[in-house]
Prior knowledge:
The complex is a heterodimer of chains A (327) and B (78). By secondary structure, chain A is of the alpha/beta class. Chain A folds into two domains: 4-172, Thiolase/Chalcone synthase (Peroxisomal Thiolase, Chain A, domain 1, 3-Layer(aba) Sandwich); 178-326, Thiolase/Chalcone synthase (Peroxisomal Thiolase, Chain A, domain 1), CATH 3.40.47.10. Chain A has ten helices and 13 strands. In chain A, the strands form four sheets. In chain A, strands 1-7-6-4-5 form a five-stranded mixed sheet, with helices on both faces. Chain A has a four-stranded mixed sheet with strand order 8-13-12-11, sandwiched between helices. The two termini of chain A are 19 Å apart. Chain B is mostly helical and 78 residues long. Chain B has one domain: ACP-like (Non-ribosomal Peptide Synthetase Peptidyl Carrier Protein, Chain A, Orthogonal Bundle), CATH 1.10.1200.10. Helix content of chain B is 60%, strand content 0%. Chain B has helices spanning 2-15, 35-49, 55-58, 64-77. The longest helix of chain B has 15 residues, at 35-49. The chains are: A alpha/beta (327), B mainly alpha (78). Chain B: One of its GO terms (molecular function) is acyl binding.
Amino acid sequence: xxxRARIVGTGSYVPDKILxxxxxxxxxxxxxxxxxxxxxxxxxxxxxxxxYTSILAMEAAKKALEQAEVSPKELDLIICSTxxxxxxxxxxxxxxxxxxxANTCGAFDMAAACSGFLYGITVAEQFIxxxxxxxxxxxxxxxxxxxxxxxxxxxxxxxADGAGAAVIxxxxxxxxxVHTIMHIDGAFTDxxxxxxxxxxxxxxxxxxxxxxxxVKMRGNELFKVATRFMENVxxxxxxxxxxxxxxxxxxxxxxxxxRISIAVAERLGLPMEKLYSNIDRIGNTSSASIPxxxxxxxxxxxxxxxxxxxxxxxxxxxxxxxxxxxx
Amino acid sequence: xxxxxxxxxxxxxxxxxxxxxxxxxxxxxxLGADSLETMDLIMAFEDAFQITIEDQDMAKxxxxxxxxxxxxQKKATA
Lengths: 327, 78
């Protein structure tokens, strides 16, 4: 009998090319000290020319499938979370399905920004619990270096490229996805957005000249809602599953900014050693950040059977989400 | 005054400064707060006084005295 949906394999991939804070000092008016104290980021990975989103996604997916011992042909569904797709049409999931050599199963993209991976595993969980599907690939992938304004020092220092993936399958014991919560509040759509290139502001010389195809961010306002929403959703998860902060082995927040992660951890009364962070090396990879972090912990053998892992995210929308895993 | 004492103690606590440094005309910036620390402080005010400080009001609160006045006014009209 299916009791839960479980992450059976994880994988991640980041490009080889490292862009350090010192490199950025040559591009925009900034300093290593400023970036480090404001964000905790020391370096990030940037995909080379010719590499695009589905390529990063497939690298991460192959590792997750290998660990799960699942062949691409056995997949029932592929969910690709991204806000930086290969093309506006068709979905990046289409390129991934074909590239991996999967059968003509269902596959779609999901746009929940930095909360995308948590939204994705929440959706996958439903298909597993109903018994409809048995093997689902969920990917969080971003190529944010391509939508950065490299003259805007508030954003180009933050965002980076990478991919993380998980294979989700039925579990007959209580290990797996214990609880999920998704939220959005569209009152804050302009806190983090790419205004141009859609049907509202169709791409034109004017939208390009006005740099409307790049990410715009209201950092201070976003800091406030991000901190509060991630704290709240973490509390909701713990209350609804009747656990306390002491029961959690690791807390993995979306790696947006180390200052936000620390503010959330402090508000939750979480000991800092339980806060997982890789932002110093990886930067903010939006929907890829949580699956990359989870894969790092998994492959470093830091997760034991039965460990409770709390995941929390926020992103453009503003979306926010929480997931509790029993490993 | 209760609000004044509470604001000052939050500033001391959040910005890790000595109480003697915190005067009504002290700018958060001069007390060593960067933009995110100021935001953290604004959130602490919201939590402590059970108020909401809207985006357009945040920019107006740059000193200890401004915070106290804003909170008093907010509490009076609540």
